Amino acid sequence: MSEVYAARRTRLRERCNAGGSAAALVTRPANVRYLAGAAPHGAVLLLGKREDLLVCQSPPDDRPCEGRPDDNLRVRILPQPGGDPAVAAAGLAQAQEADSLAVEEHHLTVARHRALTSVTPRLRLTDLGSAVEQLRVVKDEEEISCLRIGAEIADQALGELLESILVGRTERHLALELERRLVDHGADGPAFPTSVATGPNSGRRGHRPTDRRVEEGDFLSVCLGAAYRGYRCEIGRTFVIGTSPADWQIQLYELVFAAQRAGREALTPGAAYRDVDRAARQVLDCAGYSEGLQPLTGHGVGLEIDEDPQLAPAAMGKLDACVPVTVEPGVHLPGRGGVRIDDTLVVRPEADGGPELLTITTKELLAL
Amino acid sequence: MSEVYAARRTRLRERCNAGGSAAALVTRPANVRYLAGAAPHGAVLLLGKREDLLVCQSPPDDRPCEGRPDDNLRVRILPQPGGDPAVAAAGLAQAQEADSLAVEEHHLTVARHRALTSVTPRLRLTDLGSAVEQLRVVKDEEEISCLRIGAEIADQALGELLESILVGRTERHLALELERRLVDHGADGPAFPTSVATGPNSGRRGHRPTDRRVEEGDFLSVCLGAAYRGYRCEIGRTFVIGTSPADWQIQLYELVFAAQRAGREALTPGAAYRDVDRAARQVLDCAGYSEGLQPLTGHGVGLEIDEDPQLAPAAMGKLDACVPVTVEPGVHLPGRGGVRIDDTLVVRPEADGGPELLTITTKELLAL
């Protein structure tokens, strides 16, 4: 794996040098992990003029889910507890005779930025912007394989839940049980707080579980994901509780299903982000649900659960192959509930069979 | 409760005005919650020249664990999804004819700070520093009551675990079970990731659970806490697995127990933070464990699990009454394991009976 991290750092260095900076300081944890193989708590990565260094507050942990620092990367532990590794790294950059240092201004606070300036007055601080986030958008097969395993784990956890008795249990307990099952099946942990929504709560994006109990006739919508070796996937499904769904439930489900399918089918290399969003959104729009729709119908996933790209009306850019994204339209009717259907897929060219569906739990409307 | 939040805002406004700022923008979530009663995702609080406003991306959630915005506070929802409430709030501050705005430079990123500057060029941005964090150090009885309930919940969860079979179970499963029990007993959720450490891992502060199984003869150290209405407490205990602890285990336990007692007994109003730390630390130092001791032996708790003050050798300041802190010395012997004992207590004057212990699980060495 070591060459992978070195190659990523080389690509970033090229971008930095092209932007006129001799060195870069990466502080955002997911970016540190992407470039260094691990991101121990508080650690920062210096792309130095002569040498790269991972600067840590304490020795890195050695568990697989935490990642392992690239063997080719020198690790520097701060001698004093409580110091700021970013400040130390800026000093090391100056010691390597860099005259400028690109920092992540969208992550560094004003106070930390000032501390860097004051310890290294000779160093000109520039903005690295989201250069690392941009590198992270297209995944390699190793990364996709971690997402695939995470998706299998989430499918298993969800499948087991569906076999149990649901009526009478609270949203909070169902969410906790799903998270326990994720870990049982080998996840590092949940990829994000598991959402379980019943009855009038169903269909709300990011609903946080309450003490409401599952009742006959409810819609039940569930959204969960596994973190596996740092990579995070997402699956969302909506079910009906009881033997026979009501007509409005069947109609609403079919509508959201059609929207989600349209979004999935629009996932081709070269498709504009906003066109994928529009494909899903216009199905709901045409049916009269334009009010209160969520601002996006999908987003990238990877080391973070919410990455670039955003599949939204005003998003700029086009999909590449090997970009994993969610497609997750939904409708929520205040007071009644609603439906969300959410998959993680990898964009693939037509010649390779089109988009690869990672989350394979059925999307038929199940009555439980 | 409403008057409580208004009174807190009045105190902050007085500080701001004394510092020469007409208005303040609070962005750190725990600070927003402290002053507004709730901190919906992404919400910021404007202490305006004429009116205070809670600026949110979407309507606030109404669950008790999320808090409820103060009724006297006007809530402003952003008309467009995806906007930055801080930028909107800066515009509103300017509309109220403020000429300066104090911001939390230790929380605001460089990029957001620049966005504020560019939308409100007539507004002079100053630094609010940690003014709100300082107000938060001394708690009122309402806050302490939330911490007390949280501590009871953690004691219950831990007590139940001790009655179950432990040998053969993994650190990860024990941690998940504790977290489930916290929720069963009414916690919003865990106050922080539950730590369960066995054998050679025991005694490590902040150890993240692994797949190692509990074995006969192990030390088992556990650290957990409940979040209750936003307030977070902490308890840590170390046990021995099997019928008869080894001599080194008894000696190490008694030593850490003596250090922890010394720390607890040093908790009086007016005591210097560093003296409380020294009281606990010197017991371990004198026994020859000065190498590798953790940088602090305790810290404040409240809306965040790690708040001011820090009980550490270089900390400046003195304890006040009604400050809840942890006392948590520990020793870890690489390859063998160790002991940590951790309580949450509230500093009280001697006349009121001295420090109030919130986490009452026994600190006798239990062999399980």
CATH architecture grouping of the largest domain in chain A? Alpha-Beta Complex
Helix content of chain A: 25-40%
**Largest binding interface between chains:** A-B, 29 and 28 residues
Q: From the structure provided, what is the oligomeric state, counting identical versus distinct chains? A: homodimer
Using the coordinates above, name the CATH class of the largest domain in chain A. Alpha Beta
Rough outline of chain A: elongated
Q: Give the amount of beta strand of chain A, in percent.
A: 15-25%
Largest sheet of chain A: 6 strands, mixed
Average pLDDT metric of chain A: 93
If you consult CATH, what is the topology of the largest domain in chain A?
Answer: Creatine Amidinohydrolase
Strand order of the largest sheet of chain A: 4-3-2-1-5-6
Low-confidence stretches of chain A: none
Count of helical regions of chain A: 9
Number of domains of chain A: 2
Order of helices and strands of chain A: HEHEEEHEHEHHHEEEEEEHHEEEEEEE
Structural account:
Chains A, B: Residues 189-211 are annotated as: Disordered. Chains A, B: GO terms for molecular function: aminopeptidase activity. Chains A, B: InterPro entries: Creatin/AminoP/Spt16_N (IPR029149), Creatinase/aminopeptidase-like (IPR036005), Creatinase_N (IPR000587), Pept_M24 (IPR000994), Peptidase_M24B (IPR050659). Chains A, B: Keywords: Aminopeptidase, Hydrolase, Protease. 2 copies of one chain form a homodimer. By secondary structure, chain A is of the alpha+beta class. Chain A has 2 domains: 2-136, Creatinase/prolidase N-terminal domain (Creatine Amidinohydrolase, Chain A, domain 1), CATH 3.40.350; 141-357, Creatine Amidinohydrolase (Alpha-Beta Complex), CATH 3.90.230.10. Helix content of chain A is 33%, strand content 20%. Chain A has 9 helices and 19 strands. Chain A has helices spanning 2-18, 29-36, 85-95, 110-119, 131-136, 141-162, 171-184, 247-265, 273-286, and strands at residues 23-26, 44-47, 52-56, 74-77, 100-103, 124-127, 189-190, 195-198, 219-224, 226-228, 231-232, 235-240, 298-300, 307-311, 324-327, 330-333, 337-340, 343-346, 356-357. In chain A, strand 5, helix 4 (110-119) and strand 6 (124-127) form a beta-alpha-beta unit. Chain A starts with a helix and ends in an 11-residue tail after the last strand. The relative contact order of chain A is 0.11. Chain A binds chain B through residues 61, 63, 66, 81-82, 103, 105-114, 127, 172-173, 176, 179-180, 183, 208, 210, 294-295, 312, 314, and chain B through 61, 63, 66, 81-82, 103, 105-114, 127, 172-173, 176, 179-180, 183, 208, 210, 294-295, 312.
